[in-house]
Amino acid sequence: IPGIGHKYYLQFTTEDYRSRENVGNCLATVLFEKGNSPPAVTINCVDTKDEKQIQEEDNKFYQKIKQQTKPIIANDIPDSYGNIEPAFEPVWALAVVGSSKIMWEKSTENLSYSMAQVKSAKQWIRQDDFVEFDYTVLLHEIPTQEMISCHLRVIWLPGHPLKVKYFCASENQWFEETSGMESGSAAGILQEKEEIF
């Protein structure tokens, strides 16, 4: 779009990160405006997985975390050989979802990110129904090949938008985000500065 930027039209499928099965078909438009980041994204997905099955899997995942009597504390997920202990899969999964918000906000038309590793994770035992974790994650920046360290706090309850606060080593301010009206939505982003994590 002359004078504005580049607009892309995408058609793609989504997959379950564990089973690698196709769970949805999506259509999206992505607008990279000159000098603006993150991109403006409009997306519409049709789940190929039954909604009830998704909710059941979310609840099993949630119960596994919530049943902890002692906080989960973990380091180096995956380990140096690329392995993830089964007990830490829910911790990894929540970090992947939380980190996706950071990657979306920091990505540009020529710069992208993937999550390389959870360096540390700590669960906070809450009195309410939500689960909460603090993470230090390493993001792989492409094409620079740099590893960016970010701290994030993730708060989640099935059926509610995921809440993410983060701070990356290359920045000097906090960002707080709450996804939109549905779980997994990328709408309704709110940014605010904070002095203490």
Give an account of the 3D structure.
This is OCX32 protein. It holds the Pfam family LXN. Residues 1-53, 73-177 form the Cystatin LXN-type domain. Belongs to the protease inhibitor I47 (latexin) family. GO terms for molecular function: metalloendopeptidase inhibitor activity. This protein is of the alpha+beta class and 197 residues long. It has two domains: 1-48; 59-172, Nuclear Transport Factor 2, Chain: A (Roll), CATH 3.10.450.10. It contains two helices and nine strands; from the N terminus they run βββαβαβββββ. The protein has helices at residues 51-66, 89-106, and strands at 5-15, 22-33, 40-47, 73-77, 112-124, 131-142, 147-156, 163-168, 175-178. The strands form two sheets. The protein has a six-stranded antiparallel sheet with strand order 4-5-6-7-8-9. It has a three-stranded antiparallel sheet with strand order 1-2-3, with no helix packed on it. The longest helix is centred in the middle third of the chain and has 18 residues, at 89-106. The radius of gyration is 17 Å and the shape is globular. 18% of the residues are buried. Mean pLDDT is 82; it is low at 172-197.
How does the SSE layout of this entry go?
Layout: E1 5-15, E2 22-33, E3 40-47, H1 51-66, E4 73-77, H2 89-106, E5 112-124, E6 131-142, E7 147-156, E8 163-168, E9 175-178
Antiparallel strand pairs: 1-2, 2-3, 4-5, 5-6, 6-7, 7-8, 8-9
Family: Belongs to the protease inhibitor I47 (latexin) family.
Domain Cystatin LXN-type: 1-53, 73-177
Protein name: OCX32 protein
Task: List its salient traits.
single chain; alpha+beta; 3-stranded antiparallel sheet; 6-stranded antiparallel sheet; OCX32 protein; Cystatin_sf; 197 residues; Nuclear Transport Factor 2, Chain: A; 17% helix; 9 strands; CYSTATIN_LXN
